[in-house]
Amino acid sequence: MNSADSSDSFRFLVEAETGAVRVLRTRMRARLEAAQVAPSTADSVILAVDELVNNAIDHGGDYRENRDRLHVEVAIAGDRVGLTFLDPSAPSDVVDELTEVFGASVDSVLPALELERGRGLFLIATCLEDLKVSAAAGGGLMITGSVRRA
Fold first, then answer.
1. Are 23 and 30 a contacting pair, CB within 8 Å?
2. How do residues 2-61 score in pLDDT, each as one tens digit?
3. What does the alpha-carbon distance between residue 58 and residue 60 come to, in Å, rounded to a whole number?
4. How far is 38 from 93, CA to CA, in rounded Å?
5. Which range among 1-15, 79-93, 108-122, 127-141 shows the weakest confidence by mean pLDDT?
6. First to last CA, the chain
7. 118: left (phi over 0), alpha (psi -120 to 50) or beta
8. Angle (deg, nearest 10), helices 119-127 and 39-60
């Protein structure tokens, strides 16, 4: 995992491996604390990132053929903490599916209680405002959103 910094934004490149998620959470929390982001805001940002990265790892095995890393960027500006997530390996059908899912209301993202999976998408939709899903310029999946600072 590498990070590139500026005073109000930071970026992480994450190996698409389960062990990388714990390290990412720890590094993100330290950076958000150093930027004086309230713990409740940091928790929302970290939960959304955790779900995004875990979903990309869990479901990416179906399409990830190379060692493309996942990209996470956090930008702190005014009363918002912005988040950009990129999975450069995600195929267009995954982008289309997630665009449809997140284009619906948050209530429609909530999975039935008897289902074992699907809560991650609901958590992402609940944590992030201004949620947008699109194809990334160089290919893959891009998800952006923000959290209001407490």
1. no
2. 444 444 899 999 999 888 999 999 999 999 999 999 999 999 999 999 999 999 998 888
3. 6
4. 37
5. 108-122
6. 28
7. left
8. 140
